[in-house]
Amino acid sequence: MIIFCVFWLLPLEGQNINPFEIQDRLNKDSVATTSGSAVEKQVESSAKNETQQADTVKKIAAIQEKDLAMNPFEIIPRKGEKKIKTIQEPQKILQHKPVEEKNEASLQAPSINNFLFWIILFSFLILAVTLSLDRWYITKLFKSIFNYNLSNLLMRENSGFNLILLILLFVLFLLSGSIFIYLITQYFTGYSGINYFWYSLAAVSAVYIVRHSAMRIFLLIFPGIPELSQYSFTIITFNIVLGIVLLIPNLLMAFSPDIIVLISLIIGLSCVSLVYILRSFRGLLLSFNYLLSIPFHFFLYICAFEIIPILVMYKLIAGFV
Question: Which end of the chain has fewer CB atoms at under 10 Å, N or C?
Fold first, then answer.
């Protein structure tokens, strides 16, 4: 009986839902229409956003093209003023000038280093040739700095083969002194180039050629003053010794780091100062009698042949720098 009641009550519960009941479609249509309008509104809003984004992209592109076409150096005229056109050539010059200067500096540095290398090598070659021909002559030149009698002996023997050696060694002094002056100028000013070396060589050559030529002229005018020829030979011998001594500082200053360059510069200046002091002391010994008898003429000689050449060399270097 229980099973029969269960199976009998189940069909009665299913009859509560009528499958043939007609439902109202208006509510469904309203729901569909509202959902469709919402979708259309979303589509329209997305289309508007896309068109707005496209318009902004076009505006940004137009502004960028306008900025690229615009000259940043153009002056905008005020009311009542004429438009001023700027020239774009200085801008191009400013853009390309540092690159050109860098290229010139990078090309010039190896050339001047190679040039100095060959000049220093040629100076060592001159020294090697003179040493192979007569090494004792160079030894006597070094000893004559501290020995007055040996200096007079070398002056009397200054003829023939010894004269050729003296000329070669004096050329060595001109090259070595010019390199030293050029390296000093380069160290303190930063200017470098082959032309500056030729300027220093011309200055050193002009100073000593003028000095020895003037002494030779004085000796022709006043032949009774043998101290002029002695002092001229003293200047030559001291300069030759200085030129030989400066070979090593020149080599180190040209191809060494900054610390070694500074040490070599101090050593070179010390050698120049020492040789100049010794040469001046030798000149005072030679002209001691004239210093006591005619001090005014001696003062004129000091001004004309000792002070003025140094001032002329300084003026030439300062003018080129």
Answer: N
State the average pLDDT for the chain.
76
| Contact of 166 with 158, CB cutoff 8 Å | yes
Neighbours of 254 (CB within 10 A): 19
CB 104 within 8 A of CB 86: no
Angle at 69 between CA 86 and CA 74, to 5 degrees: 25
Please say whether the beta carbons of 314 and 212 come within 8 A.
Answer: no
**3-class state of residue 75 by DSSP:** strand
What is d(CA 266, CA 239) in angstroms, rounded to the nearest whole number?
19
Q: Which pLDDT does position 271 carry in this prediction? A: 93
CA 176 vs. chain centroid, Å, equals 23
The Cα 249–Cα 160 span in angstroms is: 32
Nearest to 243 by CA among 113, 132, 126: 126
What distance separates the 2 farthest-apart alpha carbons in the chain?
173
Tokens standing for residue 302: 């000091």
Q: Are 30 and 24 contacting, i.e. CB atoms less than 8 angstroms apart? A: no
Cβ atoms within 10 Å, residue 315 = 11
Beta bridge partners of 84: 75
> What does pTM read for this prediction?
0.62
Q: Cα 246 from chain centroid?
A: 24
Identity at 212, one-letter amino acid code: H
